[in-house]
Design brief:
This protein has 559 residues and is an alpha/beta fold. 46% of the residues lie in helices and 9% in strands. The strands form 2 sheets. A 7-stranded parallel beta sheet has the order 3-2-1-4-5-6-7, with helices on both faces. Strands 10-9-8-11-12 form a 5-stranded parallel beta sheet, sandwiched between helices. Helix 1 (15-29) packs antiparallel against helix 2.
C-alpha cells in the first residue's frame, strides 16, 4: 500500500468535523478501509476543498480496489494542493491498476523531475520502468541511490536483485546473484523473532483448542498470491488445482486487486476466499495462522516480498513454494519444499536453494489453454523466408541476448537465409521499448507487433515459424503457448530456475534437446511448423490428474 500522510487537520472546521476526521484517520491506520471511507465522505461533504481528506479517500478506495474512485479523489487532491506529491503517487498507482500504465509512467516522470530526491517517487518510477518500458538496467540505476537507506533500502535491494536476473552486468556469474538472494532471504525477509514466536503460539493455541474429530476432516490448504487472474498462476496451476479441490478444501488468500474470468475460475474451486491485499507482513502472518491451515502453497514468490516476510514465520503446518514469482530460491528456511522437477533443477543444483527441492515426476506444472486458443497453423507451402519471433516480456530481452542475436543475424545473412525478425508483446506500443531493441540490433530490420489483447497475441504467435528464447531469463508461459500453437522454441540453458523454463517445457513436449538448442540453430527450424500442437495428448504438460495426485500425496504426508 502507498504510505499515508502525517496526521493533518483542517485549520478551521466545526467540532463535529474534527472528531469525525480523527475517527476516520484511526480507522484508516487500522486498515478498516470501508468504515474510514464512509467517515471521510461525511467530512468531505462539509469540507469539499480539503486536499488531505481527498487524499485519504483516494487511499481508502485504492485499498478497496475501487480504482475509478481512487483516480478521481487523488486527482482532486492534487488539483487542490499541487505540492501534495503523495496524492500524485496514489494517482499513478491507481492508473496502473486501471491499466493506464503509459499515463502512470508519464505522471511519475513528471513527479521525478519535480522532486528528484524523493525516494518514494523514485522507487515507484523504477518499478514502472521495469514493467512498462522493460528496461532492467534503467530500473536498477533509479534505485541505486536508495540502497542502504533505512526506509527504502530493502525495496531497492529487491529491485536490484530482480533486475539482475533479467539483465546482469558483464562477468557477474549466476551463482553470485543466487547467493545474494540466499543472503537477502536469510537476513532481510524474516519477521522479528518475537513476532515469529507469537505466530507459533497462535498456531499452538488453536491446535490445543480444537476438538478431536471422530471423522478425519478434509485437509485445509491455503493458496496465497497476487495473481489470481489470467496469469501464469492460472494457466500453469488451475488444471491440477481443480483436481485437487475434489480431495482438499482450498482457501484462497488473494493479495491482488485485479479480477477477470480466470479469477472466477479460482473462486469456483475455493472453499473460502479472503482478500488480503492491504495487509502488511505481520498482520498477514497472524491472519494465515488463525486459519489453522494444514498446508499453504505460495503462488507469489518474489512478486510479493511482503507475503514472503509473512511466510518466514511459518503460519501453516507445512509451506510449499510453487508457480508465481518462482524465479530463484526465496532464501527462507520456513518452506517444507520448493516444487520443481529434474529439468528445472537438475541433480547437483540443490545448494542453490534454501528450500528442500521436491522434484515432481509429472513435471512441476501443467498447462490449461484459454478457451480462445487458436488452432495451430501449417507453414505456407510457398514460404521462402523464416519468421522468427521474440515473444517474451521485453524486460527479459537483455543486452547480452541482443548482442548474440545481432551476430547470429549477420551469419544468417552471410549464409543466404531469408530471416524476418518479429518482436511480439503489447509493451512494444511504447516507442522507447522499440528503440532499446533497435539500438541492440543495429542494421537489423525488426517488425514490432503490439497485440491489443491475449487472444490477438496468440494469433500472432501462431504465425511464427519459431521463437528465439531470451536469456539469461528464459520464457515461461510464452514458451508453452508457442509450443501449444505448434511453434518450436530455441533456447540456451542456464543454471538458475528462471533460466531453464523453455528447456523443461520442450522436454515435456517430447522434443529432443538437440532440436531446440540455440547453438545448433543456424536459421531454419529443425522442427517445422506443420499445423499440429507440439503438446501432444500424452505430454505430461497436459496431464493435470497425474500432477494433482503427486501434490495430494505430498500434502497428506505428515508434517
Amino acid at each position: 500500500m502507498p504510505r499515508t500522510l502525517p496526521p493533518t487537520q483542517p485549520s478551521t472546521v466545526a467540532g463535529a468535523t474534527v472528531s469525525e476526521l480523527s475517527q476516520a484517520d484511526a480507522l484508516r491506520k487500522a486498515g478498516q478501509w470501508a468504515d474510514a471511507c464512509c467517515l471521510y465522505q461525511t467530512v468531505q461533504a462539509q469540507q469539499p476543498n480539503h486536499a488531505v481528506v481527498a487524499h485519504n479517500l483516494a487511499l481508502c478506495h485504492l485499498a478497496l480496489g475501487q480504482v475509478e474512485q481512487a483516480v478521481e479523489h487523488s486527482r482532486r487532491a492534487v488539483q487542490l494542493q499541487p505540492t501534495l506529491w503523495q496524492s500524485a503517487l496514489v494517482w499513478a498507482k491507481a492508473l496502473v491498476l486501471r491499466n493506464d500504465k503509459p499515463l502512470a509512467l508519464a505522471l511519475l516522470r513528471r513527479l521525478h523531475a519535480q522532486w528528484p530526491d524523493n525516494a518514494d517517487i523514485r522507487h515507484e518510477l523504477a518499478t514502472l520502468t521495469l514493467h512498462v518500458v522493460g528496461d532492467a538496467v534503467q530500473a536498477r540505476a533509479l534505485v541505486r541511490p536508495l540502497l542502504g537507506t533505512p526506509q527504502h533500502g530493502r525495496d531497492a535491494e529487491i529491485t536490484t536483485l530482480v533486475t539482475l536476473l533479467y539483465d546482469r552486468e558483464p562477468n557477474v556469474p549466476a551463482q553470485r546473484i543466487n547467493q545474494a538472494f540466499l543472503d537477502f532471504g536469510a537476513q532481510r525477509l524474516p519477521l522479528d523473532a518475537v513476532v515469529q514466536a507469537r505466530i507459533q503460539a497462535t498456531l499452538a493455541d488453536h491446535a490445543a483448542a480444537a476438538r478431536p474429530a471422530t471423522v478425519r476432516p478434509r485437509r485445509k490448504v491455503g493458496l496465497l498470491s497476487p495473481q489470481f487472474f489470467a496469469s501464469p498462476v492460472y494457466f500453469f496451476a488451475i488444471g491440477a488445482l481443480r483436481e485437487l479441490a475434489g480431495a482438499v478444501d482450498l482457501v484462497v488468500f488473494n493479495r491482488g486487486q485485479k479480477s477477470d474470468w480466470a479469477t472466477e475460475a479460482f473462486r469456483s474451486i475455493a472453499t473460502d476466499w479472503h482478500d488480503v491485499a492491504s495487509l502488511p507482513a505481520e498482520a498477514l502472518a497472524h491472519t494465515l495462522a488463525r486459519h489453522q491451515l494444514d498446508a499453504l502453497i505460495d503462488l507469489g514468490g518474489w512478486m510479493d516480498p511482503v507475503a514472503l516476510s509473512a511466510l518466514s514465520a511459518k503460519p501453516a503446518r507445512k509451506l510449499y513454494k510453487w508457480v508465481g514469482g518462482q524465479s530463484v530460491t526465496t532464501g527462507l528456511r520456513s518452506f517444507d519444499g520448493f516444487l520443481t522437477d529434474d529439468y528445472q533443477t537438475p541433480l547437483g543444483s540443490d545448494p542453490l536453494y534454501s528450500e528442500p527441492l521436491v522434484r515432481l515426476k509429472a513435471g512441476y506444472v501443467t498447462y490449461m489453454p484459454p478457451p480462445y486458443l487458436p488452432p495451430a497453423q501449417p507453414r505456407p507451402a510457398d514460404a521462402t523466408d523464416v519468421v522468427l519471433g521474440v515473444i517474451a516480456n521485453p524486460a527479459k530481452v537483455s543486452r547480452a541476448f541482443l548482442a548474440d542475436l545481432a551476430q547470429r543475424h549477420y551469419i544468417w545473412q552471410q549464409q543466404g537465409h531469408l530471416v524476418r525478425l518479429r518482436c511480439v508483446d503489447y509493451r512494444y506500443q511504447h516507442p522507447e521499448v522499440r528503440q532499446r531493441i533497435e539500438r541492440g540490433l543495429p542494421g537489423v530490420a525488426v517488425e514490432f507487433v503490439a497485440p491489443a489483447n491475449h487472444r490477438e497475441y496468440l494469433s500472432t504467435v501462431a504465425q511464427l515459424d519459431a521463437t528465439l528464447d531470451t536469456w539469461p531469463y528464459s520464457g515461461g508461459l510464452t514458451t508453452i503457448e508457442a509450443l501449444a500453437l505448434g511453434v518450436p522454441s530455441y533456447t540456451r540453458l542456464g543454471e538458475l530456475f528462471c533460466e531453464r523454463h523453455t528447456q523443461a517445457h520442450c522436454h515435456y513436449a517430447g522434443m529432443p534437446l538437440s532440436d531446440y538448442r540455440i547453438d545448433d540453430f543456424n536459421g531454419w527450424p529443425q522442427v517445422p511448423r506443420n499445423g499440429h500442437s507440439l503438446l501432444r495428448a500424452g505430454s505430461p504438460r497436459v496431464n493435470h490428474t497425474a500432477l494433482a495426485a503427486e501434490l495430494l500425496a505430498l500434502l497428506e504426508t505428515p508434517a
